[in-house]
Each structure stands twice: as structure tokens, then as C-alpha cells.
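the two lines:
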Amino acid sequence: MAARFGPAQLMLAPLLRRKSRALLSLCALTLGACLVTSLLTLYRGVQQNLGRQFRRYGANLVVTPPAGTVRLSAAAAQPALALFPDSVGVLYDVAQAGPAGGGAALQSLVVAGADLTQLRAMNTEWQVAGPLPQGGEAWLGVNAARHLNVKAGDSIQVTLDGRGARWRVAGTVQSGTSEDNQILAPYAQVATLAAADGYTTLQFRIVPDPSSMQAAVVALRHALPGAAVNPVRQIAAGEGAVLLSTRSMLMAATGLILFTVGLCVAAALTTLALERRRDFGLMKALGGSEQAVLAAFVGEAALLGVAAALAGVVFGGLLAGLMSHLLFGLWMLPSLFAALVTLGLTVALASLAALLPWPIVHAATPAAILRGE
Amino acid sequence: MNPPAIALENVTKLYGTVAALQSVNLRVEAGSWLALMGPSGSGKTTLVNLIGCLDQPSAGAVRIDGTDVSSFSRRELTRFRAEKIGFIFQQFHLVPYLTALENVMLAQHFHSLADEPEARGALAHVGLGDRCHHLPNQLSGGEQQRVCIARALINDPKIILADEPTGNLDETNEAIVMQLLADAHAAGRTIVMVTHDPAIARGASRCIQLRHGKIEESNARGLVTTLQT
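prediction for all of em together
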């Protein structure tokens, strides 16, 4: 360090040689940077992971056929389904069903045909007892199974407009919604039974923020002219509200933390400035301008901010990983963006806090130093 | 004819209603060594502050090296001070987190550019060539004062202001410091030295007494000069 001397040395020397003096500020800034990093990381992950969590609650946008038609053709529906990965087409009809080989009267039940893998993926909240139905198999909603008095492994007889089929019950589904009363079977089985092609509804799971939902509505209306494209208002609005409030809470927490850390650092740096008042006066006596003396002090605080930000990003990354694991079940690491924002905020905060004791620097007159005041 | 190094013309300095200096006139020729004596509260420090461009008079003019600094702004005073004046303090006033070498280079930094070989040379000149990388708290009082002298001399100022430079030193270090001041004087610098010690004042070529903000008398080495008040 002695080989050269300039502003950098003037800023570094007090940090390196009087570590204990700067420790409180460093700790406060590091804590702030750590929390900012972790909150920014979680903020980024909220949309992605809450969206993933929301998938459990099923579709939040439904497309139904144009007025006057009962189904959307498969040819027309496929491009629309291909627009969004979380989507499924469902063919509904009403069939007569009863236990196979029994003498019990057949009951009218809704039969739903769909890509059950996709349907299940969009409704992870469902409680399914039994494997995914293969050819000749079906799931029964728990109410439907009770009405028919069948269980997994039994077979049922299904008839529709004179066409009949015998399906084995692969398992039961408890959804808490209308599916509890339905027979859920692979699309091809139901299409054959109903002698129909196409879908009664298309169901979509869209990222639950207003702009994404609006964009999806526009895209689907364009892909399926005349079809009714309807967000499921209660779900979409509810999810949007949760997302918005969660993000707002994270932003507010970040702001509050920064404000608190700023106060703490300002107090610590003011104490430091008071302690260094004599040095400031001396530097001015030696010909240092007020700006140069203040710049050295602010630069020192900014360096402290850089060190705190680096430590904060590391610790904040660990904290974010732990929190995301607990909240979302996965390990999230801070992005470069989060690290850069943390660095910028921490350095700016430290610099601003160092500007607050400016009156102390200003008041440190060389004459007072000579007088020993 | 060269202007005097320092000229005070009817200088008054008021702190509120208290007059620290009252209509003081003083002329210090370039290359002279002035000892400034007087009891506490007599206005010595105020006078040194004015000469050192650390303060400005309430009335009158202060000319340093022919330049009237009375109406200078703070910024102009700072620049002028860095160019013309070197300070030696009784309490040394070294920056505690800078080494001896860095303390000397600090004065260079604020003057123009730090020059390490030159700063090392200045420390070697005051006998501290082997103490360059010591922090002030690793140096004795005498050594700290010598660092202070090296710092005061590093920018080759025309005027050295020494406020009780031996006040905190033992006899050995006192002699060393006085010799360094004598060397600076011999090199042609103007020295204004505040002291309470008549023995130290004898090292100067001229001595003045301050009392109640007025210059009352002057003598040094048997020389007696009547000073104006």
C-alpha cells in the first residue's frame, strides 16, 4: 500500500487498519444485502413457483364451442392447445352406466374423455387412488363409484345411443368438483363410445397475472374464431390477487429492510465521522478541499458497501436457497440480476448514509483542530 | 524590493463580542524566524490561524507573500494554504490509520501528486528512514513530531507555522526538533513558532509577546524591537 498514495489508499487504509470501527456498518450492510438478495431471488421465483402451485387447482381458462355447435373439432382445437403447454381438450357426453354383469339399473353419468396424463398434471390437487387408465379402463369419481357401487378392479358397463363398452375401473378420483360425479376415460374410448370427434371444452392453465391472462385470451380468440374464451374469474382473480399481494409483500419487506439498514448504517457512519472529525480538519489544514475529504469518506463507505454486497450475495443466496426449498420445494440461486441490484442498492445506501454526516465534515475546521477542539 | 513573508495591517479578530486580536500590525520578513509568546488566551493561536489562512480577520488585512488573503473564499484559502504553508502541531496531528510515509504523502496528495521517493527522503532527513511503515501509535512522541515536520516540509512551503512544536517532547527530542527547524530556517524558510518556553524562543531570530490580543514587546537573543499595536 505504501508504494502509491491516492484516493484509493485514502479510502482503503481506514477500512483495513481500523477494522473494528467499520465492523458495525459492515455487519448492517451485509445483513441488508443478504436479505435483499434472498428477497429478490424469492420475488423472481414467486411467479414461477406460485404458478406451479396454482396448477394444483386446475384450469383457469376455458374455451367452449361457438354458439350453435356442441364441439370444437380436433383439427381446429389442436393448434390452440399447442399454444400453451398446460392445456387439455375434454369431450363430455352423458352415458348410461352400471356394474358389468349385474342386474342393477343403469344410471346416467357424465363421461369425460381426455388425455388423462395431461388432465391429471393440470389437477395435481386431485386425490387419485389407482393407476392411470390404459385402454379399456377408466377412473370413476368417488361419488360415481359410490352410486354404481363399484371399486377399483371392478368393471362397468357403459352405453350411449345404443353403443356399448365394458371398462375396468382403474381407480377413483376425489377432486372436490364435478369430476367426482363423472367417469374419466382416455379420449379415444369416449370418442368411440360417443361416435364423436372433437372437444366439448378446452381447458388451460395460464400464468395468473392479468397481462398473461389477457394475452392468452387474445391468442385463443384469434386461434379459435367464434369460440367462447372465458377465464375462470374466481380462480384467475384469486390467484392474481395472491400473486400480487405476495410480490407486494416482498417488495415492501425489501424496502423496509433497506430503510432500517440505512438508518443503522447512517448512525454508525455518523459516529465514525464524529470520531474522525479531527482527521477531516487536519486534511483540510493540509490543503484538502471539503469535496476531496467528503469524497474520501463517501468512497470509504462505498467500498464497505461493495464488501458487504459481495458477502450479502453469498449469504443471501444460501438463505434464498433454504427459503425456496421450504416454500417451494426447490433450491433457487440468486440471478446475476439480483446480485447486481443488491450491489447497486448496497453501495448506494452506504454512500447516501455517508453523506448524512456531511455537516460534521463541513464543521471540522482546521482552526478548531489547531485549537485542539 | 521583495514583499514581507507576512504582513498584518490593523487586524482585528472578534469572536462574538470578544476581541481575540485588536488592531494588530505585524511584519515578518521572508526568511526570518519569529517566536510568538504570551499567556493562554492572549491571542497566539488566533494570530497563527490568521497567518496560516485557517481563519479570516474581522477587520484589517492579512498579506502572505504579498497576497492579501483577507477576502479569499474558503476554497481559495485551502489552495493557498497547501501552496504556501507547512504546519507543525504540538499534538502532532498525524492521521492515525496512515503510516508515517503515507502521512507525508497525504500532504503531497492534497498539494499535487504523491511522490514516494521524495516522501521517503523527507522522512530520512528527519531521521526516520527506517520508520516509514510504522503507524503513528507505533512511534514515540519525538518520532511523531519529526513525521509532522517532514510532512510540513514536503511541499517546500515558504512559511512554517509551528504551534508549540516541542511542547510534548523530552529534552533529546526537543533538541532534534529545534535543529530541524534551524535547518529549515537556514534553507530560507520563514518560521513562525508559538512557544511558552523562553529557552525555545531563543532559537528564533525575533520574539514577540502577545497580551490581551495586542502585541506588547519583542525580543530574542538580546534583540529588542518595538512592535506596533
